[in-house]
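Data deposition worksheet. Section B asks for the primary sequence of the deposited chain exactly as it was used as input, without tags or linkers unless they were present during the calculation. Section C holds the resulting structure in token form. Section D is free text for depositor observations; keep each observation to a single sentence. Incomplete worksheets are returned to the depositor.
Section A, Depositor: J.P.
Section B:
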Amino acid sequence: MSGPRNPPYPLPRPAEVLLFDFRPAPAQRPSIQADRPIKLVQWNIERGYKLDAVIQVLRELDADVLALQEIDIHCERSGWEDTGLAIAKALGLSYAFVCEFEELHSPLRSADTQGGGVHGNAILSKYDITDVRAIEHRAHPVDWDLSPEQQPHPLARKEPRHGRRLTAAATVHTHQGPLLVYSAHLECFCGALARMAQLSDLFRDTRLQQQQLQARAQQPQELDVQRPPPRTQPPFGKADMPPDLTEPQAPASPALPAPALKPSSLANPPPASPSPSACGDILAPQPPPPTTPPSDCPGVATPPQPRVGAPGAVLRAALMGDLNTLANGVARLSPHYCTDHLRWGSLGWFEAELLDKKVLGVKDPEPINTWAVRQGLPEATCRDLVNPGYEDPFNARTDITIDHPKYRWMGHSFMTGKLDWVLLRGCRVLSHRMGNEDYSASDHKWLQVEVQLL
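Section C:
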């Protein structure tokens, strides 16, 4: 383990967004049939420890839209690589990154967790990516801005960092129309209820986006609200760009910090650069983009589509991520991973099953999740914790996405669960599967779903 290194270019700060495009020129892109399914892939790449293997797997999957978690930039544990940038360049994709944490280089860290850079979530695609946002969560069960001496959580103390959990969100302009995509990584050093509280923020955002569509339906065509311009300054100047880096698209402005349930969790939030879009409620949606595919998608046979906001228009969305639904097996025995009363109160259930039945099973137009109220979550959270129309094509009990080899003994697995999710809204599922069965490229399986937008 070496000492910290100076990064080759300025690193983003928590809540800052990066947006780049490594696709071929429009004229060089292959044509797309209008009825071809859209291939979605969800994967936690485990910090890119095995970056070459990750790239090879993703190249073989050939997905249209990727949601990736645990993206490292300039961390010693992942070979000082910019892992997301390397994937996007190798695959020739557009790439949006939301920074969650500054990973401090510290003697408290082991070699396989050593920092020195930043860490976050990403959305990659063959299509245009716009309206990239960092969605703030109101609940932060771990205050990552505390010093190691002040940090009460013993495992968090060994990985000092600054920042907070954030979800990447963006509009991906597919050949079938716009798709709202989330790439989420919820907190692991807490209980199931805190993770549900964080998920409620994403449900709330989806509901607000749908309401925006309905509001636009009341406006005449000529009065359609225009999307505010993005911030025009990239996060670093041309002279500071990594070698061979193509011209970046202008990233969206970082979101303003949200009031957390525990004020100390945002004691030192990074400053947000002012811009036309950084105003009002931090979860208030920007006006949605047009439904027609971008003009630079050659050969696309465009079917007739209603304009965004037309009566009957449905927000199509894919909420993908590592939701860390791990409260089962030996994890249940650890107060570090299961910190609330559901540690024992959900005996006999996988946490994924609990989420499937008690959260996803409570759907609009229910006004509130009464089960969550009985568990002690705040009323506002319980009102948001109502499923706004998402469906899960996978099985919450049998579709295991993590099987930690450290906790295997004599053919038995003691730390397994479905931690990774692809939740779909306004989509028809044509096929779904999982891979990385031997966990050779990451400690998580990847999930692939082929869909058509409704």
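Section D:
The first strand starts at residue 17 and ends at 21.
Residues 223-311 have pLDDT under 50 and may be disordered.
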